[in-house]
Amino acid sequence: MAAPGSSAHPRRPRTAEVSRGNRPMVTVAYFSQRFPSQTMTFTYREVMALRRRGVTVRTIATWRPDQDALAAEAQPLIGETFYIFPAAWPQLAALHLRYLFTRPAAYLSTLARVLIFNREGPAERLRLLGQFGYAVRAAAEAERCRADHLHADFALNAATVAWIAARLTGRPFSFTAHAADIFVNPILLREKLAEAAFVVPISEYNRRYLADLAADPGVAARLHVIHCGLDLKQFTPDPGRGPNEPPVILAVGRLIEKKGLRYLVEACRHLAQRGQGFECRIIGQGPEEAALRRLAADHALSGRVRLLGALPQEQVREQLRQADVFALPSVVGRDRDQDGIPVVLMEAMAMGVPVVSTQLSGITELVQDGVNGLLVAPNDAPALADAIQRLLHDPALARQFSRQGRATVEREFDIEVSAERLAALYEASRGRQATGGSARAAKGAAPMPMQERG
After folding, report:
1. What is the total count of domains within the chain?
2. 56-84 as b/e, with b when 16 or more CB fall inside 10 Å?
3. Coil, strand or helix: which one is 327?
4. What is the pLDDT of residue 434?
5. Band of the pLDDT at 82, cuts 50, 70, 90?
6. For the chain, how far is it from start to end, CA to CA, in angstroms?
7. Would you say residue 108 lies in a domain?
8. Domain residues for 219?
9. Are residues 396 and 272 in the same domain?
10. 282 located within any domain
11. pLDDT tier at 23 (50, 70, 90 boundaries)?
12. Residue 434 in domain
């Protein structure tokens, strides 16, 4: 049975009363591994923006987050979300029997794809079997809320659950493709690409990568780049703020290899050796925290490089208001993980903070070197120090980047625009489904019957 906060009937989400003519707006079941998330703020902002556009969004998550770690704006979303776990085994068994007997072809063919007919290794197949075990609960909730379309916020776990639920219910599904979910753990990625009604890469870089991976013109035609966006009313420049003394260099991100923060600490060593005054603040937590503290201590920077831990969104915004330069020296990790387009770079630029980052993946689609920020090669601490020092010593250039950075985000990374494009794709998917034109039906597989919608 469902636990508090994971009821089969969560509180109805706030949705604008919008329709097109007499036809209600599309209903979407939105799948996440954990929702809302302290760090993946762009997912819940996307949900909120979709609701403002009149889309009915039912959020379905595998796990419940730590409410105390969430920003105030995200906390009400917990009561509006269906959580798969905790779940009672008898309930899961009953759902498996329900789908086995009411839709045997869909159930058995999906189980076969999970266990046998795929390219994955034994460990990945065991993981998929576990996800098949609990995805039936998500499928039942998608039917209960009369979802027209299923969407996952990442291509890995959430998309696997959505893919299984889509096959069991006959509904179309889609997913957004970010970074590690396609570069590091592409489990069943080709299968998901082939069967999705559409896929949303968050950058042109990701679109090219997925098109090359699929090697199918039909899949390539269903790849639609939609950038993660910001609520620009929350991230505004402070025109009255002057420079700090000493200047504040800020970085925000999980303390993992791909963020390249060890190169920021090394850059701070170069700045200190040059006699440059500064205070470097690093916000975030992760497995590299101890190594970063040791590196700062080894370079006698413990008093100038401060690791502040994870902070709620309200405090992150306050830190951005205080920053003179924002630095994110992203790299490709040894596990092949890399950033897509880091949302925190958008946040800094929207608030008028000049940014320094690296020439990597989709970052170049946000930051144009010498136009709205500075880019250096990855893994190059001296070049990073040069770029930071250049901004600290050239106030006119910093002001130019401040203005141009804000303009770029307003033009290309507005969450309202992104939500409008995504809502249009959902609506088009519903139209194809109504005429029997789902991606799976187009491949010759008849859609499963739309049962148990009450």
Report:
1. 2
2. bbbbbbbebbeeeebbebbeebbebbbbb
3. strand
4. 79
5. very high
6. 19
7. yes
8. 19-229+414-442
9. yes
10. yes
11. low
12. yes
